[in-house]
């Protein structure tokens, strides 16, 4: 029963595989993911805010493809931090320092019980769809041997990945004018991000890959 349920669930997941930091979709499309730094817009001066907005406008005008901006909000888990502080208590040199550390731990624990402390991560999803139709590719590969098929598929993947990487670089360079730094996620990081995305109990803003 569990196997059938897992199989049924996988039908709604658009991801075929993740290779070399690239998401390969079941429909033949590709997705790359950039994680972005943040800026405190509210603390900037009026001139700085204007420059940031203008820089973002210029960035959008340079793009000839769509992007998806994702804000991942999750409740921060401070339990490992509190456990580490508790372990440090016996190492304190004076009784006063041990008492102060204990009171600090209790204050943080009480505060987190009363308020949701959120951590936010910012991502940009960059798409690329090969121009060659899937039907034409399948028709060509059917006439070739297994080894030739594998080589052709690998070459096609590398070419498509190179095109996607160019788009990722274009987005990262365009964001420089806004003061935002962006770097691509690797395979393991993407796997972790998608796992959280498809487990809505752990993530407030699931990532969509079908737009």
Provide a descriptive summary of the structure in words.
The protein contains seven helices and six strands. It is of the alpha+beta class. The protein has two domains: 2-75 and 120-197, no CATH class; 77-116. Strands 1, 2, 3, 4, 5 and 6 form a six-stranded antiparallel sheet that branches. Helix 3 (79-88) packs antiparallel against helix 4. Mean pLDDT is 81; it is low at 202-206.
For the structure shown, list the relevant keywords:
single chain, 211 residues, six-stranded antiparallel beta sheet, 6 strands
Q: In percent terms, what proportion of residues is strand?
A: 15-25%
Task: Note the gap between the termini.
Answer: 32 Å
SSE-based structural type:
alpha+beta
Give the overall form. extended
Radius of gyration (Å): 23 Å
Task: Work out the number of β strands.
Answer: 6
Domain module count: 2
Number of helices: 7
Can you give the mean pLDDT?
Answer: 81
Sheet with the most strands? 6 strands, antiparallel
Percent helix, as a range, is 40-55%
Uncertain spans: 202-206
The succession of helices and strands, N to C, reads HEEEHEHHEHHEH
Helix/strand layout:
Elements (H helix, E strand, L loop, with lengths): L1 H9 L4 E5 L2 E4 L4 E7 L9 H16 L6 E8 L3 H10 L6 H20 L3 E11 L5 H9 L3 H30 L6 E3 L2 H11 L14
Antiparallel strand pairs: 1-2, 2-3, 3-5, 3-6, 4-5
Helix pairs in contact: 3-4
Entry summary:
The protein is an alpha+beta fold. The protein contains 7 helices and 6 strands, in the order H-E-E-E-H-E-H-H-E-H-H-E-H. It has 2 domains: about 150 residues, no CATH class; about 40 residues.
């Amino acid at each position: 029963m569990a196997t059938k349920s897992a199989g049924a669930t996988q039908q709604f997941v658009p991801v075929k595989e993740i290779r070399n930091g690239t998401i390969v979709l079941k429909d033949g499309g590709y997705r790359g993911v950039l994680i972005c730094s943040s800026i405190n817009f509210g603390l900037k001066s009026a001139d700085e805010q204007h420059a940031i907005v203008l820089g973002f406008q210029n960035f959008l005008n340079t793009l000839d493809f769509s992007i998806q901006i994702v804000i991942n909000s999750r409740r921060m888990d401070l339990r490992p931090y509190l456990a580490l502080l508790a372990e440090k208590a016996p190492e304190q040199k004076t009784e006063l320092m041990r008492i102060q550390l204990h009171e600090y731990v209790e204050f943080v624990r009480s505060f987190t019980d009363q308020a949701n402390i959120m951590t936010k991560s910012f991502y940009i999803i960059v798409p690329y769809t090969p121009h060659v139709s899937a039907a034409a590719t399948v028709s060509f590969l059917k006439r070739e041997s297994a080894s030739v098929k594998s080589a052709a598929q690998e070459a096609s993947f590398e070419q498509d990945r190179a095109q996607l990487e160019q788009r990722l670089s274009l987005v990262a360079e365009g964001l420089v004018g806004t003061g935002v730094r962006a770097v691509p996620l690797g395979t393991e990081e993407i796997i972790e991000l998608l796992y959280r995305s498809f487990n809505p109990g752990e993530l407030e803003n699931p990532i969509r890959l079908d737009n």
